[in-house]
Amino acid sequence: MAIATINPATGVTLQTFAPLTEAGLEAKLELAQRTFEQYRKTSLTQRSDWLQQAAQVLEQGRKHFAKLMTLEMGKPLAAAMAEVDKCVVVCRYYADRGAEFLADVPVATDARSSFVRYQPLGAVLAVMPWNFPFWQVFRFAAPALMAGNVGLLKHASNVPQCALAIEEIFHKAGFPAGAFQTLLIGSDKVAALMADDRIQAATLTGSEAAGASLAAAAGQHLKKIVLELGGSDPFIVLESADLEAAVAAAATARMLNSGQSCIAAKRFIVQEPIAAAFEQKLAAKFQSLRLGDPLQPETDVGPLATPGILQDLDKQVQACIHQGARVVMGGHPKVIQTQLPPDLQNGNFYPPTILTDFPPGTPADQEEFFGPVALLFSVPDLPSAIHLANSTSFGLGASAWTTNLDEAAQLTEELQAGAVFINGLVKSDPRLPFGGIKRSGYGRELGIQGIHEFVNIKTVWMK
Ligand code: NAP
């Protein structure tokens, strides 16, 4: 895959980048290792100050960074600005709380003194996706740098300018030059990097295929990794729910980032007595969304990030329709393209779509739909809702709507997911751990758990 900025709204190539040469890559690895030897000795106060500075650089460049994201991967500008704001929050969170999370933890034993100490591991490779090109990186980098590790970023090939801008942000904030570096390389270089002694660990956010490939290389070289992979999150609405609130959240949860979010609600599982009303109200919400140029403030839904993502999504939708699913709305990308202004007609636009009444065996059963497509299922009762929710190989997040406390308790206990949100949409929050089970990955980001993923948890025992 070429490393290039191609505007997803117009299809125009704005800039291409030469990948790092072998010598260039070698120099960056050397610098990372040399920097780590000094950086690990810096004080927590110093690292906290640099993270505070990074937050300021982000705030000062908010519009510029947001526009970069929109130009490279097509998210509406307002969402891109909100993403920069969230990066500010995560930098400040670890700057403020990092020392507390990394402090020695005394443990009473038969020793005169025994405690747990958290120490950095070294250079951590971050393989990151394009869908939240700033947030995904900052939620790795802020805790990793606070803990004394150094970061090497292999970003998705379609967001090179975001990748370079993030490196620059950490430099401007005052971090040493080798503390955070961007590697403009293709994914074919990742396995070899896992074999390199200068890299101690890795984190990958992306598809199952990419995760499996990194895990194989990490397994071969016995290196620690964290994987944040795909999801087909259920959004359960029971008869007792506040229907208006549930529908409003459902539309937001599905359409966030034009549908390209790992924790977007993808399967809507609704109890039969309210299923028809839910379908009609959700369709009305989707109808009101404005699709178009993501740089315009009134746009709700932008283009998909690449033509390949559009094709994959459309293949899944057409397979469902062909096998007998009912189209509530949308489903035909060519129609929407002819309705757009001429300069957007080569963009990767997909219409908000709702499908329902699936016969068994369609892609809706098991696959992740990465775009603005809602899959509606109706079920008779709570046990069948939970059974359907748990019936995929994923386990990232789950949202459930009910006003009955017993139902809420059962959902909390029985949903197979890294997170359960009752009467709210699934979202990441720096204060709460984030991650999945089953084929959605392993390990956690954010919270105190996230900063403990890339540290040596050292036991100290003194007689
Ligand atoms: P992707 O193709 O897996 O790409 C993600 C990153 O992995 C990119 O940097 C990519 O580089 C790299 N990559 C691809 N194949 C690789 C391989 N064989 N070995 C090593 N690296 C490889 O994923 P995507 O399609 O861009 O992103 C969408 C997926 O990410 C969805 O499944 C979504 O659910 C998931 N996601 C999960 C989370 C979470 O927190 N759980 C968050 C966001 C997204 P190139 O660009 O150079 O190919």
Structure description:
With 463 residues, the protein is of the alpha/beta class. It folds into 2 domains: 3-229 and 440-462, Aldehyde Dehydrogenase, Chain A, domain 1 (3-Layer(aba) Sandwich); 233-429, Aldehyde Dehydrogenase, Chain A, domain 2 (3-Layer(aba) Sandwich). Helix content is 42%, strand content 20%. It has helices at residues 22-39, 44-60, 62-73, 77-102, 135-146, 160-173, 190-195, 208-221, 243-255, 272-287, 307-322, 333-339, 382-389, 405-414, 447-451; strands at residues 4-6, 13-16, 105-106, 113-120, 123-127, 150-154, 180-182, 199-205, 224-228, 233-237, 265-271, 326-329, 353-356, 373-379, 394-395, 397-401, 419-422, 437-438, 441-442, 455-462. The strands form 5 sheets. The protein has a 7-stranded mixed beta sheet, sandwiched between helices. Strands 7-6-5-8-9-19 form a 6-stranded mixed beta sheet, with helices on both faces. Strands 3-4-20 form a 3-stranded antiparallel beta sheet, with no helix packed on it. The longest helix has 26 residues, at 77-102. The radius of gyration is 23 Å and the shape is globular. The termini are far apart. 50% of the residues are buried. The protein binds NADP nicotinamide-adenine-dinucleotide phosphate (NAP). The site of NADP nicotinamide-adenine-dinucleotide phosphate (NAP) has 29 residues, from helix 8.
